[in-house]
Structures are given as structure tokens and as C-alpha cells.
Amino acid sequence: MKPFSLENAYYFTNVLIPKYVAFAKAQKILIFRGEAQRFIDRQTELYNAGRSWTLRSDHLVCCAEDYEMLMRGDDGKLRWVQDENHPDWEKLGAYWESLDPGCYWGGRWDSKDVAHVGFDPREDD
Ligand SMILES: [Zn+2]
């Protein structure tokens, strides 16, 4: 996690994320924004509950958001996609990673977090 930077927050939120959302729409993959900006008290709560491995999440500096996947069932109702191995996750993650060298996807972590898309700019950027 880099310190908060308005440049990075703007680029992540207003440049990268709209491309990601547009890509999902073009692929007819239904995504739904879950947690975006997070404050330290929420991060500490997740960390203490074992639901996050860090207190230095990019959510804290407006450079990470979680997008859940939805599907419409035969009854026409929306449902969460619970399967983290659903092939559309890889499509979304690979696209996200292609947007910028600083883009990383939680689906690559040992403890998978397929909904997580983050941006951690390289030092030389
Ligand atoms: Zn996340």
C-alpha cells in the first residue's frame, strides 16, 4: 500500500474502474460493487476477524474495490455467484491486470479473493 495520493485515487476510481465495469458489461458478466473505500476501523475489524491479512489494504487509500458477480437464474431473479472458480472470474481478472502494470487481482492470491481489484503503482511510475 502506498500512502494516499489523490492522483492514484482519481486514476483508479475514474479511469481504471470505469473500464473494468464497461468490460464486464460488454462481456455480459453481471458485477456488483461491494466494498470500496474502507476506513481503518473497518479494516481493523476485518483483520481481527481473520477476514483480511493486512492492516495496509489498498482499500484504505481508494485504490481497491470488491466487485461481486451475479447471475440471473431460470426464475429471472439475480443471485450471487458463490463459485470462485467460475471461468468469468479469470476473464475479469486477466482484463483488470491488462489495464496497467500496477493493476493486480485478488484471484491470484494464495487465499483467493476473486472480487478484489486493486492498484498499486510501481515506484518508477
Ligand atoms: Zn478487497
Task: Please give a quick description of this structure.
With 125 residues, the protein is of the alpha+beta class. 34% of the residues lie in helices and 18% in strands. The protein has one domain (6-119): Muramoyl-pentapeptide Carboxypeptidase, domain 2 (2-Layer Sandwich).
Describe the protein in words.
It is globular and about 45 Å long. 22% of the residues are buried. α1 (6-26) packs across α3. It has 125 residues and is an alpha+beta fold. The chain starts with 5 loop residues before the first helix and ends in a 6-residue tail after the last strand. The protein has one domain: Muramoyl-pentapeptide Carboxypeptidase, domain 2 (2-Layer Sandwich). 34% of the residues lie in helices and 18% in strands. The mean pLDDT is 95. Strands 1, 2, 3, 4 and 5 form a 5-stranded antiparallel β-sheet that branches. It has 3 helices and 5 strands. It binds zinc ion.
Biggest β-sheet description: 5 strands, antiparallel
The overall strand count is 5
First-last Cα distance:
15 Å
CATH architecture: 2-Layer Sandwich
Q: Helix count?
A: 3
Heteromolecules bound: zinc ion
Helical residues, percent: 25-40%
Q: What order do the SSEs take from the amino end to the carboxyl end, as H and E?
A: HEHEEHEE
Instruction: Give the CATH topology.
Output: Muramoyl-pentapeptide Carboxypeptidase, domain 2
Shape: globular
Q: Would you tell me the structural class of the helices and strands? A: alpha+beta
Q: Which spans have pLDDT < 50 for at least 5 consecutive residues?
A: none
Mean pLDDT across residues: 95
**CATH class wording:** Alpha Beta
Number of domains: 1
